[in-house]
Every structure is written in C-alpha cells, then in structure tokens.
User: What shape does this take?
Amino acid sequence: MSVSAAKRLFPDPQFGALPVAGSDALYPVHRIFCVGRNYAEHAKEMGVEVDREEPFYFLKNPLSLVPGGATIPYPPGTANYHYEMELVVAVGRPVFRAAPGAAADAAFGYACGLDMTRRDLQLKARAASRPWDLGKDFEQSAVVSALTRAAKAGALGPKRIWLEVDGTVRQEARLADLIWSVDEIVCHLSQFYHLVPGDLIFTGTPAGVGAVSPGSRLRGGIDGLGEVTLAIGAAE
Assistant: This one.
C-alpha cells in the first residue's frame, strides 16, 4: 500500500492562518523563523555582544501561532515569562539564494508580533551552550497581528515600533535601528532555506523586554501596521 493510500492514525494538525487587513483573505502559516539579537541595545541588556558578521536564527513551531487579540494562559515551566515586540515579515513568493537588494520584494506583507519567551529557560540553555527550544518554541508563543500588504506599508526604516504593558510604554525604537534590515535577513536566510509563501520571519526585538504575569495586558504597534494585543490569563 502506498503512503498516500494508507489510513492516518490521527488527524493532521491544523496550522493557523492570519487575517489580511482590508480583505477577507487568510494567510496560512507553515514555518516561523526568528532572528536573534537584531537590536544592539537589546543585546546589551541581555549581557551579550552583537554578532555583526551574520545574523543567527531560531525557529518556532507553526502550532505556536496565535492571532492577536487572544487571551492565553501563563505557560508551564517558567517563573520569568517575557514579551518581545517585533516586526514580522510574511513571505509572498518563493525565494532561494536571493541577491542583495532583491529580497525585500519577496514580502507579501508585514505585521506586529510578540515573541513570548520563557526567559529563565532560555538563559539556562544559553549558559550551558544548549539550544533555546524550551525557552522559545512552546505553545502560544508567537502572537501576530493581521497582515498589512507590503504595498500599503510604505518605507520601513522611519517607522516607530513600541509596546505597552498595562498602559505603560516598555519598548520603543525605530525599525532603522535593526542591525540586519529586512532585505539583508531575507537574502541571508534564503541562502540556507527555500523560502516560500507561508513563511513568517520575526526580525528581532528592541531593548526593554521584561516579565509579565497573569492579568497583564499587552498592546504593541508599528507605524502604519495594525496593532497586536494580548492578555495573559491564569497558569494552567
């Protein structure tokens, strides 16, 4: 019997999708790439040096995706649960080994994202030179707003990125502060992966990250894009 004809033991997981602003379309999400330490001030607050030779990445499972506006439980296994506000790029066409200067045209659109992090587990892994999966890749850890089409977003560099926690601004920067621009990230990442529609890229967070607790309410934005909001519920 062929694999295609075999009966599956349980249903395939249903990956999430994001709404597209101004339409009834949905953007299915298949992979989530994340860039580490892409703002110098954030690297400084984390006590590490910026690697300016090339960007580095970690991944989140697509099942971690949560559309903005949700209430999610405080996650298990952590006592130091952090927010990281980021620009998210949604890939709109296949890209492989893109040349410098050509990669930015691959964006279908942009969104505001929250890379939620079990910071204590991440730092424990970092200290032992181990992967960050327990700290970064867990259920409901990738919170993303509706997508704004790239043609409507305008120039990225001057845009302000910010995050409020319970009404107080905690993070604030300009996208021009990114160490690696969107074009550079897509170009570099496409040397190692065949990027395709359905891929999201979190581009890094500014300084000001911090802990949240049950009852916290987060609201973040980037000029010209739809805001992302999130409420933290009780622990499971």
